[in-house]
């Protein structure tokens, strides 16, 4: 796993483009980013390849330099350097590594860090969530920021925050209750 990229250059460069992107895509940005210097952003749901550019645009809208975890194949030539510059951190999902411990160490070494993780780990809507996002936040002592993209209502943003207690099952139920409010279909 590579180190977090330096903050703000990508945000300064791409922020005007992010505003334009979100406007052209007809997204309304809702919710507030926490004032914390470090946090894990839970990206839910992850259903399309468009989630990455939309999530990056939303982060830049908030003025936050986000790092994100992606499969190793995204970081190959010719786009690997660009993906890392955009804040990507490569994870090799074909081998068992201690990615949680590595990310906790990355948080400890960083002055500021916003790490985006899609807990489903795939674009399948039926996949059960992987718990790594939770264990990273709990191990690093940072809050979970519950971000979402609702393509039906054309909203993207922050649904809430949660400080992990160490009781994964109880916290997961609270997280899913918050998401149920912002991701339910319009009637």
Spell out the helices and strands N to C: HEEHEHEHEHEEH
Q: Helix count?
A: 6
Question: Mean of the pLDDT scores?
Answer: 85
Envelope shape: globular
Strand residue content: 15-25%
| E-strand count | 7
Distance between the termini: 43 Å
pLDDT under 50 segments (min length 5)?
A: 1-7
Q: Note the main sheet.
A: 7 strands, mixed
Structural class: alpha/beta
What share of the residues lie within helices?
Answer: 25-40%
Taking Cα atoms only, what radius of gyration do you get, to the nearest Å? Answer: 16 Å
Strand order in the largest sheet: 1-7-6-2-5-3-4
Question: Quick summary of this structure?
Answer:
By secondary structure, the chain is α/β, with parallel strands linked by helices. The protein has 6 helices and 7 strands; from the N terminus they run αββαβαβαβαββα.
Indicate the topology.
Blueprint: H1 9-24, E1 28-30, E2 38-44, H2 51-61, E3 66-71, H3 80-85, E4 88-91, H4 99-109, E5 113-117, H5 132-140, E6 144-150, E7 155-162, H6 168-183
Parallel strand pairs: 1-7, 2-5, 2-6, 3-4, 3-5
Antiparallel strand pairs: 6-7
Helix pairs in contact: 1-2, 4-5
Written overview of the protein:
The protein is an alpha/beta fold and 187 residues long. The chain has a domain at 1-28 and 40-108 and 134-150 and 175-187. It has 6 helices and 7 strands; from the N terminus they run αββαβαβαβαββα. The protein has helices spanning 9-24, 51-61, 80-85, 99-109, 132-140, 168-183; strands spanning 28-30, 38-44, 66-71, 88-91, 113-117, 144-150, 155-162. Strands 1-7-6-2-5-3-4 form a 7-stranded mixed sheet, sandwiched between helices. The longest helix is centred in the first third of the chain and has 16 residues, at 9-24. Mean pLDDT is 85; it is low at 1-7.
């Amino acid at each position: 796993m590579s180190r977090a990229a330096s903050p703000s250059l990508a945000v300064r460069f791409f922020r005007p483009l992010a505003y334009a992107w979100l406007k052209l895509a007809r997204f309304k940005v809702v919710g507030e980013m926490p004032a914390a210097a470090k946090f894990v952003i839970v990206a839910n749901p992850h259903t399309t390849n468009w989630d990455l550019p939309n999530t990056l645009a939303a982060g830049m809208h908030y003025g936050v330099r986000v790092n994100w975890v992606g499969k190793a194949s995204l970081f190959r030539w010719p786009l690997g350097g660009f993906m890392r510059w955009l804040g990507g951190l490569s994870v090799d999902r074909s081998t068992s590594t201690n990615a949680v411990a590595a990310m906790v160490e990355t948080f400890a070494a960083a002055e500021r860090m916003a790490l985006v993780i899609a807990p489903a780990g795939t674009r399948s809507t039926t996949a059960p969530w992987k718990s790594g996002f939770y264990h990273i936040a709990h191990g690093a002592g940072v809050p979970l920021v519950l971000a979402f993209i609702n393509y039906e209502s054309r909203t993207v943003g922050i649904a809430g925050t949660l400080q992990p207690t160490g009781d994964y099952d109880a916290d997961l139920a609270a997280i899913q209750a918050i998401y149920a409010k912002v991701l339910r279909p319009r009637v």
